[in-house]
Amino acid sequence: MARFQFVLIFFLCYTLSPPPAATGSSTNKLVDKICNRTSNYTFCAEALYSDPRTPTADAYGLAFVSFGLAYLNATATQDYIAQLLNDNTIAANHKRRLKLYQHDYSKAVSALEEAYDDLNSETFFQLAKLAGHAAAAADDCQSAFKGAHYSPLATMNDCLKALSNICVIVSKLFTGGIW
Ligand SMILES: *[C@@H]1O[C@H](CO)[C@@H](O)[C@H](O)[C@H]1NC(C)=O
Ligand SMILES: *[C@@H]1O[C@H](CO)[C@@H](O)[C@H](O)[C@H]1NC(C)=O
Ligand SMILES: *[C@@H]1O[C@H](CO)[C@@H](O)[C@H](O)[C@H]1NC(C)=O
């Protein structure tokens, strides 16, 4: 009898207590839903959770996180392009292509800047369009190097495209669209 009571009490305590921290505090259901709609769930979750605000963020918070990631990624690549253009060991024909890259990235950065301003003023209607422009700029960039052996930014383009696509999905949280 005593043993039965012990088992019962243990059972009740266990089932009534909050879930353990490992599974309860670090996940955000909204992130699951968003990442589920991207082409790579793992990439999306890793990127979003790289920001400490993500576990407790609502849709508005996740918009800041995702546009912030895309913006930082785009500007870091922009800096890298500037560095390559200053590099004397890089051939002139490669530099001509890099200039195309530079043009595409400045388009991406200004679209993301505009999106950030919109978020700050809680203007949501053109977020998805702006995120789409950033993804398209990464694509243009990729095609500028199509067939070329020299393609120093291929991985970065993929990153910006994937991050921008997360932004597109997050944007649709505000404008209806798919939710
Ligand atoms: C994610 O997608 C899978 C398969 O389409 C589905 O079974 C699952 O319920 C989805 N999860 C969420 C959180 O939407
Ligand atoms: C998905 O993303 C993860 C993490 O970034 C990466 O390791 C993996 O190769 C990606 N999968 C595909 C199919 O691109
Ligand atoms: C861009 O984002 C990817 C994925 O989050 C990250 O691995 C990469 O380091 C970032 N690149 C830059 C230049 O910020």
Automatic annotation (TrEMBL):
Entry keyword Repeat: no
Stretches assigned to the Pectinesterase inhibitor domain: 26-170
Record InterPro entries: Invertase/methylesterase_inhib, Pectinesterase_inhib_dom
Signal sequence, start to end: 1-24
Claim: Signal is one of the keywords in the record: yes
Pfam families named in the record: PMEI
Annotated SMART domains: PMEI
Keywords: Disulfide bond, Signal
Example GO molecular function: pectinesterase inhibitor activity
Family recorded in the similarity comment: Belongs to the PMEI family.
The protein's name: CELL WALL / VACUOLAR INHIBITOR OF FRUCTOSIDASE 2, cell wall / vacuolar inhibitor of fructosidase 2
